[in-house]
């Protein structure tokens, strides 16, 4: 809707314009009036006016003078000139001021509305152009960060072509020879916890908030541009740009500012993060090297000594293959195939204990160990018949696929995550094998009958058949009328009588043959069962 201002000292003319104008059809919501040029300018200054209708001959400030002021101060405000004089000077000023139309008194309805329609069409065309301009700028402003991100990523992965993208180099400051650059990699160690607790699980919103904080804090000395790493959602890449500084100064400033930024992230958002800073460089094309140094710096952080946020610009050697994992996978497999889940856990526990007792266990080693374990456990689970859809084979976040958090800010949390991941695979194997392997409770009885002399525990059968202790004990009692321990004792005692009937066997030998720790322990068990000692039993048999 538009607002029109009529500036004329003659009230009858103002009234005629009000009556003859098709204001509703033209989309005019309000028609204001001013009796002279001075009052008209006051109204224009006080409120938005879309169109003015100016009488050329007025007392005080003439229409020609008013048009000159409008041309100078309000060049985009369209005007329609009204005059009772076919005067060349008025016409010349109207042309110079680019008025929309020139109406002669007396005004008729047709000419008035034709002039008003021309003015409204001009206003609508201008609004369309402005809207398109705004939309283009919004689109450009929204796409510029993505364009810069794409350029930086292509430089980092060494696919950028300077000649092809030469026109875009000024966007990232690559055209200024005084600029210096450095890459920073920031890794959020507890991202999952913060994402769920404070950002409604929206990782993009988390990236936006963290990126804004990094850009603002680093911006005290640097021009900073942050964006999420496409390879790992808990990492952000920050490109720092500083004009005319020495490398040593950039290195010092970047270390200081990133420490400040990470402290703010922890205080305000509860994010525990580490950051690696790459070597400063004078050419934007060297950002790839700086990024690789930043990654190496992060991977070299010692998890055993990590307490809270940490920033480093010291790169470490590439992470080497951890032999403890690949060397123990066969032990894992043998333990799991034998139903010895406790043994599988102890193998992992032993490896974790050895890592924790060393001088260093880096973030890079932790990440590689985790990835290697998942690959090996996936392969082993597939070979043992676990369906592919039950395993995180091609998942970007395998730990999250298991329903676990892949956060760890300490070695203790890393150990717990590995143990929980192992539990996931053991459970999948258990479910698969229990579904594929028919279970007979008589198998347990047969085992006891043949191996009664062993240290038999119910957990052995629970692990082997992937069933709960309670379920096995219940089945056994229903089938054979007694518990497993009671049956073991019954078999041993029956065998003890049989052996005691052989006078050539000493009681000590019989004790060992039945699996007891010593003669006294056997004698006590025998007396408790038969209310007579082994010696008394043997004597009675002789006398009988």
From TrEMBL:
SUPFAM superfamilies: CheY-like, Homeodomain-like. CDD domains: REC_YesN-like. Its main location: cytoplasm. It comes from Paenibacillus catalpae. It holds the Pfam family Response_reg. This is Two-component system, response regulator YesN. PROSITE patterns: HTH_ARAC_FAMILY_1, HTH_ARAC_FAMILY_2, RESPONSE_REGULATORY. The modification 4-aspartylphosphate is found at residue 55. Keywords: Cytoplasm, DNA-binding, Phosphoprotein, Transcription, Transcription regulation, Two-component regulatory system. InterPro entries: CdaR_GGDEF, CheY-like_superfamily, Homeodomain-like_sf, HptR, HTH_AraC, HTH_AraC-typ_CS, Sig_transdc_resp-reg_receiver, Tscrpt_reg_AraC-type_HTH.
């Amino acid at each position: 809707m538009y607002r029109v201002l009529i500036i004329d000292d003659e009230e009858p003319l103002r009234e005629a314009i009000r009556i003859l104008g098709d204001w509703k059809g033209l989309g005019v919501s309000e028609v204001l009036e001013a009796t002279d040029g001075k009052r008209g300018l006051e109204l224009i200054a006080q409120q938005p006016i879309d169109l003015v209708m100016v009488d050329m001959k007025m007392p005080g400030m003439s229409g020609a003078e008013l048009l000159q002021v409008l041309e100078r101060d309000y060049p985009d405000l369209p005007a329609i000139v009204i005059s009772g004089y076919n005067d060349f000077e008025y016409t010349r000023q109207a042309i110079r001021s680019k008025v929309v139309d020139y109406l002669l008194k007396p005004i008729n309805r047709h000419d008035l509305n034709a002039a008003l329609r021309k003015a409204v069409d001009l206003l609508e065309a201008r609004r369309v152009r402005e809207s398109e301009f705004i939309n283009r700028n919004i689109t450009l402003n929204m796409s510029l960060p993505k364009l810069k991100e794409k350029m930086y990523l292509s430089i980092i992965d060494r696919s950028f072509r300077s000649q092809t993208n030469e026109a875009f180099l000024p966007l990232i400051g690559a055209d200024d020879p005084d600029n210096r650059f450095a890459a920073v990699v920031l890794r959020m160690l507890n991202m999952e916890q913060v994402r769920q607790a404070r950002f409604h699980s929206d990782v993009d919103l988390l990236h936006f908030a963290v990126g804004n904080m990094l850009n603002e804090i680093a911006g005290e000395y640097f021009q900073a541009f942050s964006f999420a790493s496409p390879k790992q959602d808990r990492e952000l890449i920050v490109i720092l740009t500083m004009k005319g500084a020495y490398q040593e100064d950039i290195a010092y400033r970047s270390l200081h500012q990133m420490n400040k930024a990470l402290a703010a992230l922890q205080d305000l958002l509860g994010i525990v993060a580490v950051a690696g800073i790459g070597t400063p460089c004078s050419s934007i094309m060297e950002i790839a090297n700086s990024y690789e140094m930043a990654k190496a710096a992060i991977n070299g952080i010692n998890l055993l000594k990590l307490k809270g946020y940490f920033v480093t610009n010291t790169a470490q050697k590439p992470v080497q293959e951890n032999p403890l994992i690949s060397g123990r996978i066969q032990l894992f497999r043998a333990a799991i195939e034998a139903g010895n889940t406790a043994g599988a856990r102890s193998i992992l526990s032993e490896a974790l204990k050895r890592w924790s007792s060393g001088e260093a266990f880096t973030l890079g080693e932790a990440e590689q160990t985790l990835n290697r374990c998942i690959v090996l456990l996936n392969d082993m689970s597939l070979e043992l018949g676990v369906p592919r859809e039950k395993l995180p084979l091609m998942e970007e976040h395998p730990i999250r696929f298991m329903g676990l958090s892949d956060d760890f800010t300490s070695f203790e949390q890393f150990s717990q995550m590995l143990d929980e991941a192992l539990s996931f695979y053991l459970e999948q194997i258990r479910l698969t094998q229990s579904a594929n392997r028919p279970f007979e409770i008589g198998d347990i009885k047969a085992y006891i009958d043949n191996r009664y002399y062993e240290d038999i525990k119910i957990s052995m059968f629970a692990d082997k058949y992937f069933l709960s202790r309670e379920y096995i004990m219940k089945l056994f009692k229903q089938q054979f009328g007694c518990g497993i321990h009671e049956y073991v004792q019954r078999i041993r005692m029956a065998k003890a009588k049989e052996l005691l009937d052989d006078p050539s066997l000493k009681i000590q030998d019989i004790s060992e043959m039945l699996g007891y720790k010593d003669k006294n322990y056997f004698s006590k068990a025998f007396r408790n069962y038969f209310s007579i000692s082994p010696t008394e039993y043997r004597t009675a048999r002789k006398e009988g």
